[in-house]
Structure formats: structure tokens, C-alpha cells
Design goal:
The chain is flat. The protein is of the alpha+beta class. It has 17 helices and five strands. Strand 4 and strand 5 form a beta hairpin. The chain has three domains: about 45 residues, no CATH class; about 150 residues, GAF domain (Beta-Lactamase, 2-Layer Sandwich); about 160 residues, Hypothetical protein af1432 (Orthogonal Bundle). Helices cover about 55% and strands about 10% of the residues. The N terminus is likely disordered. The chain has a five-stranded antiparallel sheet, with helices on both faces.
Amino acid sequence: MDNFKDSRRNDDLLPQDGDAKTICLLENDPIEEIFALNLGDFLCEHLISPDFAHKIGDKVKTKNERLKDQLMELISIYSIDSTLSILGFNSNEDYIIYNSIAKTIKLMLSLEKCVIFLAKKDEPIKLAGTSNNETEEKVTSHIEKSYKDEEVIVLNEDNKQVIIFPMKNKFECIGAIETTRDMSRPLEAEFIELLKITAGLFVTSLGIQKLIEQVKRVVNAEDAATSELLRLRAQLTAIIGDLGDKQQAFVEKLALAVDLKGKYKNHHSQRTADLSKEICNFLELNEKTTDLIYYAGLLQNIGKITIDEQLFDKKGKLSKEEWDKLQEHPNAGVSLLMNINFMSEVVPYIHYQKERWDGLGKPEGLGGFSIPFGSRIIAVADAYCALTEERPHRAALSNNEALEIIKQESAVKWDPNVVNALVKMKS
């Protein structure tokens, strides 16, 4: 050990000011600490036994395998065939995917037409999908400008309102969405915001898919470096975080659009969701269940987004066909939500919200505890909010009046446990 003492003083091994490294090899990664002190060659040659070197090698291998497992778990959750994709597409044929998206947007917002244009790396922007199955949509200068400048462009042409939205998130811009509507029914601000969020969510979804393909290649490589695995994990978790923000914004904007289309003036969906969440907290439900019920409360009238606005504008008595359309709106909403796969867990709560405690409700005639708990909570919250809101045919009821009506129907329409919780909260 004399050579060691001559070449490096003992105080060289002590932590210096501002130096986060230490000689204590057992506290952190020994490989990182050893080479940080420039002692790698010497210690590997003179101090580390073959057994210890083998253990270090096993540790590095275990770390890589652990990282690979984490990455594979993430991509199994967020792959296009699982629950990420905004519209649940699982086809390898791009035009089917993009036509499906365009048609759904057209349906949601009662548009005349929706067209999607995409630009691949180092290639000009071109048609990707359309709601009307047209294959000759031209890339105009306005579409190119919206894409390149990442800005919304509004045009009024031939009594049509044309709005072009850049498809972008905080990482990239990949194309543009063009919508067309009659000028007599221009898109409201809430619908415009919903389209912006939808476009951004779609871009983030595609971005994750591209990253997932890269992750698969690296994970399957036998010589994958730990640093590369760590980099991919950081990238994947960052974009998943962005996805989560966009999902919540999408649901909230969609709820506003539902209320607007259904002619609610009191933010009914938001009030129902907030009250549902309060009931969940009062009953001390776990965070995940509470979040799902909150989202279901926001979207419990989502079927109205698929019904023509003119039906809500009609004055006077509805025909049987029109009434049936309104009555069946939860089923239409469920169909839409099932295509928005990341919200698939809230579907049962919405699907069974019209069931009754006595088993005389719709759509399945479930009763009592066989009705999903989230559905029972939303049903009570929805009833209370509806009763305390002003409607065209009546004035808003007071808190006490609404509670009395709900108590009278406890154990008939509503879960008595949920009713009791609401009464305690509001009394």
C-alpha cells in the first residue's frame, strides 16, 4: 500500500467543499463512487476480490433488468392497443385511424366537415383523414400557415365558418385540423377550446406511441446501456405527465361543451362532478375511485354531445322520436366514451347512472348494491344539482326543498346511504 500513500495523500480522499461524493462506498452506487475518485483501476486491480467484482456485475445487470421491467410496464399501459389512444384506434392503416378521428370530431361538434392534415419529418404537410371520406382535399396556404406558425386561423368563406387548428403540444407540432360549419351556427368559444385540447391530446398520444417504439427496440437489445434506459424512462414519464394534464383538461372542456350543447346555463356537469367528489370525500373513498367518479360526474350527460343542437333549440312538445333521442343519451355517451379509451374505467358509472335502487330503472334494471357505487353517487348528486338549478319550466328549489324531495325517494330511486351522506353534508 506504500505506492498508494505516495501517490495520493489521505486528505485527498476526504470530501471537499461542494463535493457531493464520498469514500463511503456502501451508501451509494459503488461503481459511481469508485470512478468518481479516479481510483477505479487501482482498486479493481488490488482491492476488489473476484467475488465482489462479480456481485457488482450482478447489481448492474439487475438494475438494467429492473429498468427494462419498469419501461415494459409503462408501455403496456400506454401503448396504442391498451388505454392511451384518444379514439381507441388499433388499426395499422393510417387512413382508417384519421378518418375515425375526423368523424368523431364532426359528430361531437355538429360540423359539416372535419379534415386532418399531418406532416412527417422532412416531408410537406398532406391529407391524412376526413369525416366525409373525400380523398381530394387540398393543402391550402392557410393550412400550411397554421401548421408552420402554430396558430389558429378563422376564415369566413361562402357562408361557411372555417377554423384551422394546429396540432401541437409543448414538444412539437405535427399538422393541422380544418373544421367547417355553417355561418348561421358558428363554433362557440367552448367548442374551439375543446378542439385545441383534442388536437394537443392527439399529438401527445402519437408522441408516446413513437417513444414506445423506441423503448421496445432498446429494451430488446442485449447490450442496452443503463444510461440509455434511464434517459428513456425520464422521457416517457415526462410525456406521460403531459398526457395526464391534457386528459384532465380534455374532460373538463368536454363537460363544458356538453352543458353548452344541452342548454345548461349553470355548469350543471361541473356542479354534479364537484358534489360527487364531496360525497366521495365524506364517505372516505380512496383517491383513485374519487377521481373516476369525479370524471364520470363531469361526463354523465356526454350523450348530449352527439345529439344535434337543433333538438335542444326546439320550442314546444317533442315528438316521440325526439324524446327517445333525449332519453337514450346516456347510451350514446357511453358509446363515445368507449372510443376514448383512457376514460374506459368511468364507463360503467355513466352507463348505470339511470338505474334505480328498487330495480325499476334503465338500462339493465339493476337494483340495490348491484348498481355500481359510483353510479349511485352520481345519480344523487345529479338529482340535487338539477333540483337546485333554474330550468325553463320552473324556478330553482331551495336546499331544504331539494333535500326533502330526495329523502322521500330514498331507498326507492336512490341509495339510502348516499342520501344520508348528502343530507348530513347539506344540513
